[in-house]
Structures are given as structure tokens and as C-alpha cells.
Design goal:
By secondary structure, the protein is of the alpha/beta class. The chain contains 32 helices and 23 strands. The protein binds a DNA duplex through helix 5, helix 12, helix 22 and helix 29.
DNA sequence: TGACCGCGTCTTTTT
DNA sequence: GACGCGGTCA
């Protein structure tokens, strides 16, 4: 056969691969070999004679693009695969926007603002407009602007759209249109685009410059889109316009795994694909190759509770496998111990390697307890998400220097480093600088270049400091095409004193900062080497910045082996593990309390749970805790409503527990005691307790010691006269619990939680404490 | 101006 | 618990 690789596909997969006559939609159930279909389809197109640089393949993450590319390279060879247009929407279209810069009003080297930058700018604008940031919450404003952009509503359209205005009025933020307007012009002034701009500006480019649209329609003879269920309107329209000329488009996705609506993704894009392309062929991949029957069936029974979906029957031909084990524990700490213990067992008794195991959770903040439990048992793990390498302060600082050198209009970068390391330019001065720039409608850098001309109201000393800063940046900027990225980066790091800043003391923080900065330099070095090896000319600092601004730490995965993976369910999309722990299956956590008010959001949470379960190949273990320490407080919770959505035939539920509703315990006066009662209650189910029992019940410390919470690894005193976990009585504050003890200037100090009176920090030699037994 | 402290807030997911 | 903010003090 001409295409031997097609033999590796099943019937429906092969149909999907070889259909290339017009638009097609591939509904790819979880684990149905979606990536395989995409890679083989591209390989097929290439084997059929298409040139690689006429194929556009859009993925959701850089990592997915990279992986797909290397798999294609294995079939057709590296020097063919490398010419494919393959990447995320954001990276592909930022490239196009740079190439078409003379049409966009931005420069070729525009900066990309990450969400922290854009939030900071929004904050600044709110402040300048003298609005109340309790009403105009930066986060809220940011998401509304983002929503507007994703729906291609420009500031002008925003202000004149009566529906939008009504909505803003209803949300009590009527001035949002002005913030949006100013935000846009400030980004423009700074020659910066945020993530959403990359899509919005691409659309504007294609709308305002039909010649540019035609050019790319011609270039992209075949378009493939992965994870189509997670595209938003802006992405939908880009794809639609590009495909208009030839209709050679293939989108792949699974409506059941649409989990990014908070980012503007619109599940209707996939549900309505047939409306956009009436002639489209639909292929369904329904055989799941990943998971056991029990896992697939459990997931099916769950997703069946959703109403908005494309009908399909996912089935598995693998063995029945284990039931999904549902476990309840008392506290989040116990949940961590439960996970760690079971990983140990799986590792020792069942021969699962650590790399076969993942722990998935709804929110990043849940990783902490799991992490601690694993560390205690010496189980190697790797956490994804949380703050990435590029979000660390020292890295952001260094990159801000790079950014400012590459683009002196980058005001967010300037704000970050104008006084770092400290050079005597304080908030007041910075405020004046920005105010003057606004007053004259120019950029901050223009003001710095002519402080007298713009009447910057600062004294001579401050002006000199500003001029000095300006000259430093200018001197590096002059070298931007003289030195390669690595040489210039080294110069900047050494010359500006950011590195010596970390040499001030040998604290662990500073050591880790040094390491991170070295790590960054190493990465830049590799970047230059790579470019040089390929004979590419774009090895300057601006080129480096263009490349990294869209990277996330998933993409810089070193793939360390034999570690347990810890990540959010979102981050796990597209991955698979032999064993999956899903932790924190509780109401008010999963589903997230933000998404329970309407059916649409709730269905997305359910899909998220579906994604979590379908990551598992062989075992899936779900747990929930009755109490969880969150936001500095112990909260009580009920099992997630989603547990009831799974057909019980596929679950292994503990006998003494039911996942049906239980009356919620309200910890109105002492959660800790409530918890103790609950444990007590569970041990002796015949004894019940009444709520009116509000009198304080002293609990013996030794009993608390059994609680993981009583773990006193944090105690810094050798022999504290008041043990951590003990209950004490204070003449004024009443009864409290000792949280922590330490020695301060030779005096014993204790952190004591007095419930409603708050947590107090007391010196024991003054506080007369009575220890309760 | 900068360091520090105490207070209140707020918490989803990410290109 | 983490962070940001505002106020205070040197």
C-alpha cells in the first residue's frame, strides 16, 4: 500500500484522515486517537504532494504543536515537517502580525503584554480616573475587556452598543467603555498587544486589508484546527475567513471536553459547525483506546447528565478493570496522606511507576497539601502550573529590562524596573512622569527624552536620576542589533546591577534567584545556539522576546521521569496516566462556586470532571474531604453533586459513607471542635450531638496530636512551655488554641487562635496562660 | 524615599 | 495563607 501508516488506523479514523475534498468535522471522543488522526492526516496531505508551507495547523498549546510536529517528522522527515505552519493561534498570528506590521499600526517588534501587565495597566487607569477599585475591580474589568475583544468588539463599538452599555450599567461599571478606550490607546502607545489583541488585531488586519487576507488565504491551502471546542469567536472568524477561498478545513474536537469558556471559548463553534459549513462531512471517533470499560462507562454516565452535546457513544474494548474508588477523608491533610499512602502501595505492590500516576485538582491552591504529604513520604513529584518560571519576580524583572531595551515604549516594563534596583526614583516621581505623558498625549519615553520641554515637575536631583536611567537603557538599546540576545542579555544583567542585587546576602531566596537568572541566561544561550545552527539571522534580543512571550512552563517541560504529576484538571487536558487521583471532589470546590448559578456553567464544570476521569487508563481514585483549610479557615463541605451523576455500578463507595446529601455542619464558633465532634460522631454513630451544644468543650491536646494538623514540623522552639495544638485560657481573650511557637529575642512567643477574638501573637512571659487539659 | 507593619481582601481554570 | 494596600516611622 502506498500509505502503510494508514493501516494503523481503524475505519472511522481512516475515513477522517483521507477525506480532503472539503470541510470536515472530526468529533473525537476522549482517548479516541485524535492526535493520531491529525498527525496522519497532515502526513497524508504531504504524501499526496502538498507542500508543507501551505498547511496551517492550529493547536491549543505550544506543547501540542511541538509534539505533533515531531510525530509528523518521524513519518515525512524533519526537513519537510519544519516548514509546516504549526502552532497555537496566538503564536502563528503574532508572527503574521509582525510580518504585516506596516498595516497594523504596531511595529514589527511589538511587545506582548501578559495578563499581569494588562491587569497592572488597568489598575493604573482606574486609579488615574479616580474610580473606586472596589467597584471597578481590576480583575472584573480585565475579563470584561477580554470578553469584548474575543467577540471582536472594538472600543468604539463597545461604547455605541446599547446592549453592552446596559450590561455595564447593570454591573455598576458604566465607565467601562472609557477604561477600555484608554486601555487600548495606552497599549497602542506602548506598542504592546495583550493576548486577546493578537486575535483581535489579526481580525482587523484581515477586515481592513483584503489584500493581506487574500495573501494568507492563498498561502494556507489546507487548515486544520485542534481542540476546536475551545475556540472563541475571534478564532472562529479568523479560521472561517482564511478557509473561505478553498474550504479545505478540518476541525477536530470533542464537545464533551470544552472547558475554556471562561476564556471566551464558545462551545457553539463546534456544535454549530454544520451551520457554518453545510457541506461539511462529520466523522465520529467513538472507540476509546485509553481507558478500561469501567472508566469509560463511568465517564459516559456522568456526561450523559449534560444537555448540550453532540450524540455519540464512546466505548472501550479494553478489560473491565477496577471500579472507580471513591474515598472520603476528614481533612485535606488526610487527603494528602491518603494519596501519598496509596501511591506508595501502587508503587510497591502493583508496580506502577511514579510517572504513571497523576493527582488532579480543581484549583492550584490544592496542590500544597498534596505536595507536603508526598514530600513527607519522599515520593518524587512534579507540579505543573502555579507560578511558572517566567512569572517569578526575578525573571520578570530581568525580562522587563530586556523588554524596555527592545521597546522603550513598553510602559509596563518601565514601571517595573525604573526603580529596581533602587535608584531613588519613587512612586511620586513615576506618577508625575506618567501624568505628564498623558497630559501631552505622548509616551513616557518621550517625556524622559525632553523633561524640560514637557515641564516635568521634578527637582534637578530627580531629573538627573531619571536621565541616568534613560541613558542606561538607551546605551543597551543601541546594541540591540549589534550583539546577539545572549551577549546583550549578559551585558544587561551585569551592567544594571540586577545580579549583584542577589549577592547582598546568602539567603536561600537570593540563591534561588541567582540560579533562576543563570537558568534564564542559559536558555537564551541555547536559543542563540539553535538559531546559529540553523543559519537563521533572528538571534537578537527582540527575537528572543517574541519567542518567549507566548511560552508557558508546560512548554519548557523537561520531562523528568519517574515523578508523580500534580496539576489542575485544565492542565491535564490531552494527557493520560495509568493512575489518576482526583482530589477535592467537594461542593464549593468542584464544581467551583462561581459556576453553579446557571446550567451552562455547571455543565462546563461537569465536562471538566469528565476530562479528569477520562485521563485515567487503568485506575481512577476520587476523594473528598469533609473539612478543608482554605483562605486561612477551616471549611466544612459536602461531597460534590457530580458524584451522584456517575452510575453507581462503576463506583466503589465505602460502605459507611454515602455520597448523598448530608446536613452541612456550620462551623460558626469553632471549626476545630466541630471537626473533632464529627470524628467522634463517626466512631460512635449512636451518639449524636445537637447544635445548641455551644458550650466550649476543651479537647485534650494529645487527641489533636493525631490530627495531621498537629504535625509540628514547623515548631521552631525546642521545648516550648506551651505545646502547639494545646488549648489555653487567657484572662482577656478567653480560650484559644496554640498555633505556633517561636523564640523572639530570647523570649518565647506563641501564635494563639482565640476564635472570634482573632489570632494573637503573645509573649509568654507577659501573657498569663492557663493550659487546659 | 524606603522599609516595615497591620489590615483587609480574595481566591477557577490559561493562551 | 498570600498578597496588596495604606499608613507610619526613620
Amino acid at each position: 500500500m502506498e500509505f502503510p501508516f494508514l493501516d494503523e488506523l481503524n475505519d472511522s479514523q481512516r475515513q477522517a484522515v483521507i477525506y480532503t475534498d472539503g470541510p470536515s468535522l472530526v468529533i473525537a471522543g476522549a482517548g479516541s486517537g485524535k492526535t493520531r488522526v491529525l498527525t496522519y492526516k497532515i502526513a497524508y496531505l504531504l504524501k499526496m504532494g502538498m507542500r508543507p508551507n501551505t498547511i496551517l495547523a492550529l493547536t491549543f498549546t505550544n506543547k501540542a504543536a511541538k509534539e505533533m510536529k515531531s510525530r509528523i517528522a518521524q513519518i515525512v522527515g524533519e526537513n519537510v515537517a519544519r516548514y509546516l505552519w504549526m502552532g497555537t493561534f496566538h503564536s502563528i498570528f503574532s508572527r503574521i502580525l509582525r510580518a504585516e506590521s506596516e498595516k497594523t499600526g504596531y511595529s514589527k517588534n511589538f511587545t506582548i503584554y501578559d495578563s499581569a501587565d494588562s491587569k497592572s495597566l488597568i489598575k493604573a487607569i482606574i486609579k488615574e480616573m479616580k474610580l473606586d477599585d472596589k467597584v471597578y475591580k481590576p480583575g472584573l474589568i480585565q475579563s470584561r475587556i477580554s470578553f469584548a475583544k474575543n467577540n471582536l468588539i472594538t472600543p468604539q463599538a463597545y461604547a455605541s452598543d446599547s446592549d453592552v452599555q446596559k450590561s455595564d450599567l447593570y454591573a455598576k461599571v458604566p465607565l467601562l467603555k472609557e477604561i477600555y478606550q484608554i486601555y487600548s490607546s495606552r497599549c497602542k502607545q506602548a506598542d504592546a498587544m495583550d493576548f486577546d489583541d493578537l486575535l483581535l488585531q489579526t481580525n482587523l488586519l484581515f477586515r481592513n486589508h483584503p489584500d493581506a487576507l487574500q495573501k494568507y488565504q492563498h498561502i494556507f491551502q489546507f487548515i486544520l484546527v485542534d481542540e476546536y471546542q475551545d475556540t472563541n469567536f475571534a478564532q472562529y472568524l479568523i479560521v472561517k475567513k482564511l478557509a473561505e477561498a478553498h474550504k479545505k478545513i478540518c476541525v477536530v474536537g470533542d464537545d464533551a471536553q470544552s472547558i475554556y469558556s471562561f476564556r471566551g471559548a464558545n462551545i457553539d463553534n463546534i456544535l454549530q459547525f454544520k451551520n457554518t459549513y453545510p457541506e461539511a462531512k462529520v466523522f465520529k471517533l467513538e472507540r476509546n483506546y485509553r481507558s478500561t470499560k469501567n472508566i469509560v462507562n463511568a465517564a459516559n454516565s456522568l456526561i450523559d447528565k449534560n444537555s448540550a452535546q453532540i450524540k455519540k457513544t464512546i466505548f472501550s474494548e479494553k478489560e473491565t478493570g477496577e471500579l472507580i474508588k471513591v474515598t472520603n477523608v476528614f481533612t485535606d491533610l488526610e487527603e494528602g496522606m491518603y494519596v501519598a499512602d496509596n501511591i506508595k502501595l501502587l508503587n510497591k505492590k502493583e508496580n506502577y511507576g511514579h510517572q504513571d500516576i497523576a493527582v488532579l485538582y480543581r484549583t492550584n491552591s490544592q496542590s500544597r497539601v498534596i505536595e507536603e504529604a508526598l514530600r513527607k513520604q519522599n515520593i518524587p513529584y512534579r507540579i505543573y502550573g502555579g507560578l511558572s518560571f517566567y512569572q517569578r519576580k526575578e525573571i520578570k524583572d530581568v525580562i522587563a529590562y530586556f523588554r524596555l531595551v527592545a521597546n522603550r515604549n513598553d510602559e509596563e516594563a518601565l514601571k517595573r524596573i525604573i526603580n529596581y534596583p533602587a535608584r531613588g526614583i519613587g512612586d511620586t516621581t513615576v506618577g508625575k512622569l506618567f501624568a505628564t505623558a498623558q497630559l501631552h498625549g505622548v509616551g513616557v519615553w518621550d517625556v524622559l527624552n525632553d523633561m524640560l520641554g514637557y515641564n516635568l515637575p521634578v527637582n534637578a536631583g530627580t531629573a538627573a536620576k531619571l536621565a541616568n536611567f534613560r541613558d542606561i537603557i538607551d546605551s543597551y538599546a543601541a546594541l540591540i542589533t549589534e550583539l546577539n540576545a545572549y551577549e546583550l542579555a549578559q551585558n544587561i544583567i551585569k551592567g544594571t546591577g540586577i545580579l549583584s542585587e542577589t549577592f547582598l546576602d546568602r539567603s536561600p531566596e537570593n540563591l534561588s534567584k541567582q540560579e533562576n537568572i543563570q537558568e534564564l541566561l542559559k536558555a537564551i544561550h541555547e536559543f542563540c545556539d539553535e538559531k546559529e545552527k540553523n543559519g537563521e539571522a533572528n538571534l537578537y534580543l527582540s527575537d528572543y522576546l517574541a519567542e518567549i512571550s507566548l511560552l508557558t512552563d508546560q512548554d519548557t517541560d523537561k520531562g523528568e521521569s519517574n515523578r508523580v504529576t500534580l496539576m489542575t484538571v485544565h492542565a491535564a487536558k490531552g494527557l493520560e496516566f495509568k493512575v489518576v487521583f482526583i482530589v477535592g471532589m467537594e461542593e464549593e470546590l468542584f464544581p467551583s462556586p462561581f459556576n453553579v448559578d446557571n446550567e451552562r456553567d455547571l455543565e462546563e464544570e461537569r465536562r471538566l470532571f469528565y476530562v479528569a476521569i477520562t485521563r485515567a487508563e487503568e485506575r481512577c481514585l476520587i476523594s473528598y474531604a469533609r473539612s478543608r483549610f482554605r483562605n486561612g479557615k477551616t471549611n466544612f463541605s459536602n461531597p460534590s453533586r457530580f458524584l451522584k451523576d456517575i452510575d453507581e455500578r462503576y463506583l466503589d463507595i465505602p460502605k459507611d459513607e454515602t455520597i448523598l446529601d448530608k446536613p452541612k455542619l456550620t462551623g460558626n464558633w469553632d471549626d476545630e471542635v466541630n471537626l473533632e465532634r464529627m470524628r467522634f460522631n463517626k466512631q460512635q454513630p449512636t451518639i449524636s450531638f445537637q447544635k445548641e451544644e455551644t458550650e466550649y468543650i476543651p479537647v485534650r491536646p494529645k487527641r489533636l496530636a493525631k490530627l495531621p494538623k498537629g504535625d509540628n514540623s514547623k515548631v521552631t522552639t525546642q521545648n516550648p512551655s506551651v505545646p502547639v495544638g494545646a488549648f489555653v485560657k487567657h484572662s482577656i481573650f478567653g480560650i484559644g488554641k496554640v498555633l505556633e511557637t517561636s523564640i523572639v529575642n530570647g523570649n518565647e512567643k506563641a501564635e494563639i487562635d482565640f476564635g472570634e477574638k482573632g489570632v494573637k501573637s503573645l509573649l509568654l512571659k507577659f501573657a498569663k496562660l492557663e493550659i487546659l487539659q
